[in-house]
């Protein structure tokens, strides 16, 4: 193709020209739309005052979420929003050879001065203060103030035991044991009314059938949540109450009442949750004594209760001996806490003079079922004497109050109980020996 003198002739592609025209048309349409939107909405317009257009402040939804209020309580390392630290220990088992050491000037006095058991309980205080809810096991009925009193086999112990339990800080007690019917309905009435008068919540034996179907709920004073407590005993020492509802039972396999006992315990646990309990614990009272291993009833009964899924913790007393801790089916079981306070037993039953105090930490979110679990168990071996004097005594390796028997013997007992506690494979990252000086 020839070139003109004004340069090379450029051949135009009609398709390119068409595309360019389309783009220009689209741009014109967009500009027109934007102009129309501004004309209609006039975002700069104010109220139309003579001073000209006013700017309208941009409104934004600036809701700030409320902060989560945590209630770690007295637990040392609460891993969630809320925690409840429950302290439990073994039987308050009082024989005449024990209470005679704490007599007042007049053991027939009815004003609370017949006995003074405060020195016996007092060393517990620092451990109770390091917990949220402390729960005792009241092994026996109590006498009227001023007596008469009675020891084994049909107990009727000084009521000043309950006075001192309240003063040291117990908020609740269970009392479904093999001695619950020792003094019949009158004994139950004396114990329950005395605990009521002292402000100690309680469950296990009852004055009315209606009461027997109600679970015990205890609100944590630190705000962490609500604890439900259920209990039951395998035996009443062959005694038969006037009504079966008098004492919570967990009778053995083969007993015609076994299934109904389990169902009643589960029903009470479920009712506790309906009434606001975040966690539910059950206390089992056994009768096979001085065993380092859990007996067949304890294991079978605890496993059956755990299989129901109704309980966050199962713990036991009655064997008068320290026993293993086990995690079964995601439920923690403390088989035997031994004795909290008791008289010396002869050498062949030396384990009677020892016990365990445990602080069980439940963690979760208050009011939210399904969030709660046992996150830690601190256990403490204990003795019934300090330097020959009856007094609750921690056998802790850190000796916050000095030795109980002697350095060597304390170490032997502590090691024996350590071996027992872990004999069923308890996870040592969860189950830990309690050394309170580390927390202080």
Helix content: 25-40%
CATH first level: Alpha Beta
Total number of helices: 11
**Model regions low in confidence, pLDDT < 50 over at least 5 residues:** 1-24, 26-31, 36-40, 42-58
- The beta-strand count equals 15
N-to-C SSE string, H for helix and E for strand: HEHHHEHEHEHEEHEHEEEEEEEHEH
Characterize the biggest β-sheet: 9 strands, mixed
Report the portion of residues in β strands: 15-25%
The CATH architecture can be given as 4-Layer Sandwich
Termini separation: 102 Å
- What is the average of the pLDDT values? 89
What overall form do the CA principal axes indicate?
globular
The CATH homologous superfamily is named Metallo-dependent phosphatases
How would you describe this structure to a colleague?
The strands form 2 sheets. Strands 1, 2, 3, 4, 11, 12, 13, 14 and 15 form a 9-stranded mixed beta sheet that branches. The chain has one domain (82-439): Purple Acid Phosphatase, chain A, domain 2, CATH 3.60.21.10. The chain is an alpha/beta fold and 440 residues long. It is globular. Helices cover 27% and strands 21% of the residues. β9 and β10 form a beta hairpin. It contains 11 helices and 15 strands.
């Amino acid at each position: 193709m020839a070139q003109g003198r004004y340069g090379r002739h450029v051949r135009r592609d009609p398709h390119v020209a068409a595309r360019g025209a389309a783009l220009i048309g689209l741009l014109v349409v967009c500009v027109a739309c934007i102009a129309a939107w501004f004309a209609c909405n006039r975002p700069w317009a104010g109220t139309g005052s003579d001073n000209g257009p006013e700017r309208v402040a941009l409104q934004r939804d600036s809701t700030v979420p409320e902060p989560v209020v945590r209630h770690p309580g007295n637990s040392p390392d609460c891993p969630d929003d809320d925690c409840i630290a429950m302290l439990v220990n073994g039987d308050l088992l009082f024989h005449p050879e024990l209470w005679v050491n704490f007599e007042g000037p007049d053991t027939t006095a009815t004003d609370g001065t017949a006995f003074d058991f405060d020195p016996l309980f007092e060393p517990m205080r620092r451990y109770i203060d390091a917990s949220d809810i402390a729960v005792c096991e009241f092994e026996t009925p109590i006498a009227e103030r001023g007596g008469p009193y009675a020891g084994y086999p049909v107990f009727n112990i000084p009521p000043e035991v309950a006075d001192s339990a309240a003063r040291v800080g117990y908020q609740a007690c269970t009392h479904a044991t093999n001695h619950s019917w020792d003094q019949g309905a009158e004994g139950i009435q004396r114990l329950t009314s005395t605990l009521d008068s002292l402000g100690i919540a309680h469950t296990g034996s009852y004055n009315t059938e209606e009461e027997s179907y109600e679970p015990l709920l205890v609100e944590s004073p630190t705000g962490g949540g609500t604890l439900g407590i259920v209990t039951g005993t395998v035996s009443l020492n062959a005694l038969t109450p006037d009504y079966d509802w008098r004492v919570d039972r967990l009778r053995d396999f083969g007993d015609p009442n076994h299934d109904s006992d389990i169902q009643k315990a589960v029903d009470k646990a479920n009712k506790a949750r309906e009434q606001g309990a975040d966690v539910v614990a059950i206390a089992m009272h056994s009768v096979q004594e001085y065993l380092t291993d859990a007996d067949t009833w304890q294991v079978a009964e605890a496993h059956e209760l755990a299989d129901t899924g109704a309980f966050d913790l199962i713990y036991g007393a009655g064997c008068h001996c320290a026993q293993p801790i086990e995690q079964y089916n995601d439920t923690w079981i403390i088989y035997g806490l031994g004795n909290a306070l008791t008289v010396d037993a002869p050498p062949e039953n030396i384990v009677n003079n020892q016990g365990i105090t445990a602080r069980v930490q439940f963690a979760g979110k208050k009011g939210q079922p399904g969030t709660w679990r046992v996150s830690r168990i601190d256990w403490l071996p204990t003795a019934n004497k300090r330097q020959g004097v009856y007094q609750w005594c921690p056998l802790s390796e850190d000796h916050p109050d000095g030795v109980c028997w002697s350095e060597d013997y304390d170490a032997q007992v502590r090691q024996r109980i350590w071996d027992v506690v872990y004999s069923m494979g308890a996870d040592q990252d969860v189950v830990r020996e309690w050394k309170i000086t580390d927390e202080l």
